[in-house]
Write a structure and sequence with these properties.
about 120 residues, mainly beta, four-stranded antiparallel sheet, about 0% helix
């Protein structure tokens, strides 16, 4: 699976962004998908994940209620709608694909996109 993330940019605190991740190469609809982020000087952290059919979603506590993950299997895309953005959301955001079950642990994800920068100014 090849993954291409896009949609990052510079936004003021309180604003919104929608990240997209386009997938190709294998049967996208059979993969769980996740979003992770990495801020400068920090480890990569889990943000959100969605099961192959969209029936199960997980969120990090820090983004719950503000971010929404969704997917469109027909278009082979996954999205991350980010609202009420905060300065601490500033990071490079990565999408990832997992051949097995949906989860929060980056070690189990098999494929990664190149990342898209999100910068939130306070």
């Amino acid at each position: 699976v090849q993954l291409q993330a896009s949609g990052g940019g510079l936004v003021q605190a309180g604003g919104s962004l929608r990240l997209s991740c386009a997938a190709s190469g294998r049967i996208f609809s059979s993969y769980a998908m996740g979003w992770f982020r990495q801020a400068p000087g920090k480890e990569r952290e889990f943000v959100a994940a969605i099961s192959w059919n969209g029936g199960t979603t997980y969120y990090a506590d820090s983004v719950k209620g503000r971010f929404t993950i969704s997917r469109d299997n027909a278009k082979e895309m996954v999205f991350l709608q980010m609202n009420s953005l905060k300065a601490e959301d500033t990071a490079v955001y990565y999408c990832a694909a997992d051949r097995a079950v949906v989860g929060r642990d980056a070690r189990y994800y098999d494929y990664w996109g190149q990342g898209t920068q999100v910068t939130v100014s306070s």
